[in-house]
Design brief:
InterPro entries: AAA+_ATPase (IPR003593), ABC_transporter-like_ATP-bd (IPR003439), ABC_Transporter_VariousFunc (IPR051782), P-loop_NTPase (IPR027417). This is ABC transporter domain-containing protein. Keywords: ATP-binding, Nucleotide-binding, Transport. The structure is a single chain. By secondary structure, the protein is an alpha/beta fold. It has a single domain, classed as P-loop containing nucleotide triphosphate hydrolases (Rossmann fold, 3-Layer(aba) Sandwich). The strands form 2 sheets. Strands 6-7-8-3-9-10 form a 6-stranded mixed β-sheet, with helices on both faces. A 4-stranded antiparallel β-sheet has the order 2-1-4-5, with helices on one face. A hairpin with a 2-residue loop joins strand 4 and strand 5. The protein is globular. The relative contact order is 0.18. Bound molecules: adenosine-5'-triphosphate. Adenosine-5'-triphosphate binds next to helix 1.
Length: 237
């Protein structure tokens, strides 16, 4: 079976600084992997390369068999990215924002209207659908950006510190959507500094340090979280 993500010899240099160094990574379809690592290790850079927000300096990244450098539009249809950036337009209403992104993903009109209403309901924003996003509280914007990331039913979810800055309500919306049948089969790659939460959610644990993977194990290899923390905690300081 084709991998959800296939990365070979991936490198990224900013100016003269090498940030990612000949990385290899395969993610199987449906896998939930979490990447831990110290500040500046290159975690966000890796997610941006997979999502086509950045161009590799060398090597290759394939998402569902599509090369990110050669077929970025096809890759974008596969990927839903949730990060600190909300990627929302303040001057548009919540519904207009989702409509804009839905059209960009090529979702057919009737299906899109149904999808938008469903996600606004799931996010608890249906009564605010026609209000401008610039008038939204931070929590409301967070909920809407979750809806935006999931709008096109991506097969690959890239989650960059998804809980940072999420209020309890938005965290619940996020967890419920992640657990929903719709996303149970999707592949998930999460970056996190929260060891306990990351461990609880994932089935594979990776550690990135100075642009290289220094650790890659299945969660099954650990009897419990404390076991993992004892073995890997020291690598993360
Ligand atoms: N656009 C950019 N231009 C120049 N340098 C950059 C750029 N983006 C990231 N970097 C540098 O690349 C390195 C890795 O950054 P990155 O954000 O990927 O790390 P990270 O592992 O996600 O860190 P953190 O855990 O602190 O979020 C850092 O030294 C950062 O300053």
């Amino acid at each position: 079976m084709e991998n959800a993500v296939s990365i070979r010899e991936l490198s990224k240099v900013f100016g003269k600084t090498p940030v990612l160094k000949a990385l290899d990574l395969d993610l199987k379809k449906g896998e939930f992997a979490v990447i831990f690592g110290p500040n500046g290790a290159g975690k966000t850079t890796l997610l941006k390369l997979i999502s086509t927000l950045l161009e590799p300096t060398g090597g290759s990244v394939f998402v569902s068999g599509f090369n990110v450098s050669e077929e970025p539009e096809k890759v974008r249809k596969e990927v839903g990215m949730l990060s600190h950036d909300s990627y929302l337009y303040g001057e548009l209403t919540a519904r207009e924002n989702l409509h804009f992104f839905g059209k960009m993903y090529g979702i057919e009109s009737q299906e899109l209207e149904k999808r938008i209403s469903q996600l606004l309901t799931d996010a608890g924003l249906l009564t605010k659908a026609n209000e401008r996003v610039s008038t939204f509280s931070r929590g409301m914007k967070q909920r809407l950006s979750i809806a935006r990331a999931l709008l096109h039913r991506p097969s690959l979810l890239l989650l960059d510190e998804p809980y940072t800055g999420l209020d309890p309500g938005a965290s619940l919306v996020f967890e419920n959507l992640l657990k929903s049948s719709e996303f149970q089969g999707s592949t998930k790659l999460m970056v996190s500094h929260n060891l306990e939460r990351g461990f609880a959610l994932c089935d594979r644990l990776l550690i990135l340090d100075k642009g290289k993977f220094v650790y890659d194990e299945s969660k099954e290899d650990f009897s419990c979280f404390e076991d993992f923390r004892e073995k890997c905690g020291p690598m993360l300081t």
